[in-house]
Amino acid sequence: MEDRELLEALVTAIGPTGNEKSVYEIIKKALDGFVDEIFVHQGSGSLIAFKRGNGVSSLLIEAHVDEVFMVVEDVLENGFLRFYSHSIDPKILPGLKVCVHGRKLLRGVIGVKPYHLVKPSEENKAYTFDELFVDCGMTGNKIREFVSVGDYITFEPGFVELQDYFVSKVLDNRTGVFVLIEVLKALKRIKHEVNVYALFSTQEEFTSLGAITSSFSIFPDAALILDTTFAIQHKVGEEDGFECGKGPVIFVGASISRKLTQRLTSTGERFGIPFSYEVGVLSSTDADRIQLVRTGIPTALVSIPIRYMHTPIEMVSESDLEKTVQLIKLFVEHYEPVTKVQNGEY
């Protein structure tokens, strides 16, 4: 796969919800010379790139940039940090390396009571946040010089290749960001009618602030959201996940534009790009929010299956990334504008 270095740069960059600026520098550098305009949305801090087409219709393609994180709840007298997270399972945290983002970047580890000191009644008990702590190797007085309540804590960056797979933190959703960048670069070499707005949005993990406010400002004729979904893994079967290596996953449901989705699936079928269907009502992605903006925006959703979501070892298939780039590129190249809703058909 081309641009492995770009993917590694994206997933090892640190960009927790509300503090995504370091990732935007990578995106802007990667898109230099490939888009007609690139700017920051003042209302949300999201990054927007514009690629002009030959026609008048507009398509927004969105991928959120932010990553899950923990936050410092207390700095103890002995120098240890108490912390909490809304979106990370505490059971996966003991023994992990982390970064603490205070007035100075500090490395630390998440520690627990040694097994030898665990009481028999506690042996089969899962850890909660109350029992976990971050140890940065500092005394209480020293660490207070750098760390305050409310500071971010993120997984330590790392990037590993395992056969056809990439392993890292924040593949949710830097894989979507990577696909969107690769699509924009491919569009430089082909003719397309539709004007493309590429939205690299902020704060999806909590409020979808970037997706809502930026799409309100742009108000495109239609929107396509790029995100991740669950992959089949040990103890996650076909009822909950999708097989890696089988291509992107296209969401179908009452909240998604059928017309736009049918054009996506027709593109895949026409050009022999494999894909799967994810059926639901709401998707728990920015697609749920963007479709409600202003008088409504016809919206579709394409997801990339990943294993071990919201952990530091998320896992994605290289071939799934390549197939997703190809599907979206061809969808844009052969894009047909979405007509106004008639007779209740969305």
Automatic annotation (TrEMBL):
Family: Belongs to the peptidase M42 family.
Record keywords: Aminopeptidase, Hydrolase, Metal-binding, Protease
Name by which UniProt lists this protein: M42 family peptidase
Domain of life: Bacteria
Binding site for Zn(2+) 2: D172, E205, H310
Pfam families membership: Peptidase_M42
Species annotation: Caldisericum exile
Cofactor(s) it depends on: a divalent metal cation
GO process annotations (BP): proteolysis
Cofactor binding note from Swiss-Prot or TrEMBL: Binds 2 divalent metal cations per subunit.
InterPro entries listed in its UniProt record: Peptidase_M42, Peptidase_M42_aminopept, Peptidase_M42_dom2
One MF annotation (Gene Ontology) recorded for this entry: aminopeptidase activity
Residues that bind Zn(2+) 1: H64, D172, D227
Active site per UniProt: E204
Regions annotated as coiled coil: none
